[in-house]
Amino acid sequence: MISLQDRISSFDPSVPNPGAGDLLGAISFYGKGTGRNGLHDLNPPYFRGFAPKVGVAYSPNPKTVLRANFGIGYLPMQGKYYGGTGQYAQCDGFCFGNITASLDNGVTPAFNWNSGYPVVFPTTFPITDPSLDNGSGVSFWDRNDNRMPMVENIGVQVGRELPHNIKVEVGYVGTMVHRLYTNYSLDSLPLSDLSLGSLLLSDIHSPEARAAGIPIPYPTFKGSVAQALLPYPQYTGVTNLQASIGNSTYNALQVVVQKQFGPLSLNANYTASKMLTNANVPGSSSESSVSAQHPSLRNDVKALANGDYPWMLNLSWVYPLPFGTGQHYLGSSSGLVNGFLGNWTLSVIQAYQAGHVINVSTAVSIPGIGGIWANEVPGQPVQLRPCSSVDPGNPAKAAQLNINAFEDPAPFTLGNTNVLPSARSCSYLDEDIGMNKDVSLSERWKLHFGILVYNIFNRHAFSPNTFQHNIDVPTSFGQYTGILSNPRQLQYYMKLSF
After folding, report:
1. CA contacts within 13 A on the Cβ side of 75
2. Dihedral of CA 335/337/338/344: which sign?
3. Domain annotation covers residue 35
4. What are the pLDDT digits (tens) for 383-398?
5. Count of alpha carbons within 13 angstroms of residue 487, beta-carbon side
6. Cis status, amide bond into 126, omega within 30 of 0
């Protein structure tokens, strides 16, 4: 039996490809034996992670405290191996999958329904032909890319007790993440070849290509000029899976205020922040939104991440209502009056947050590169109206963005706009209220009941996942088709504790 580790195969840029005239770039098979590379682990373990953490606190007087912290941590490697693509996703040569169908409803070839459609399987496994996947897309796991993503945390905070029983904390929080996992292509058309223009679409054996002197990569090659000029023309694409090349930075000012107004308690916190990244993290829209148009430009791309919210404000209030025995109102009441009106507590939670980042895209692509960004038109406003004025039910007010502010780039050129720096989806606004009453039935038994109202003002925030942002789909560009928030909800509850 072949072990799981020895059923791994991966593209290797250093292996000659016999099916492509021995051009470098072929499938490498892990394990020991004929046709294998003699390696066992796709990625060797990394033992040099150093994660110091230090914190300092100093109180110059009883009402003031200063704090500072610094720490280094690491994200788990599991996210690389099993995060979407999986360590053992590619087992070419060791496993077989085939989907076949009769084009004339089983007349050719004729077969018995009980036996199923006849499928021709390989006679022997494993198949260790380096040219096995020629003509298709392949994946590359760089076994030397085995360092965990590193997270640096920095914090400085000042806490102070002010007059009138007010407590304030003001702090800076910084988080820098290095070596974020992201996918990128190893097989993209060099940008210098964009000058060939429409010749890229011609067949490599066409008179135009021959007259231009475009080299044929290997004798049996068939395809377009764009395909012939790829770094690995024997494949339709080579993806470096979850390479540790991404970075992100998060900087925030955080303010916390606590105040006691007699029986009323207030807690408030406000965050002003910015999060930037250059990585398009697979399967993690909350962490990034940036995707370079070309692999050679990936280090020059830095934009707002999907997780960027420039401001967030949260308020929470707790107020025991002054009714019933011993309270300001009806303080001498007893019996049923106190039973109904006494011991009620009002609580309120208010949450407000800036909207999500908006990306715009096009339907335009370049052979050998793929989809490209839009161009922003100078002098045109990006937004038609603020998000608060958007009405999806009214065609005249359904769009937030101005489609005339963007255009497709000229053929065989790149765009300049992807993440919009000055426009966002609608802010998130929510208020929840609760009324709770405690009733002592005995020294041991207590009854708790009340009502919770979520989104009491029935506010709604449009969902960024249903925002149509392709400038080549004018009927829906800049419009929303769903909401992020829930409608107003009422919940009654009762709990018995003993």
Report:
1. 19
2. positive
3. no
4. 999 888 888 888 888 8
5. 1
6. yes
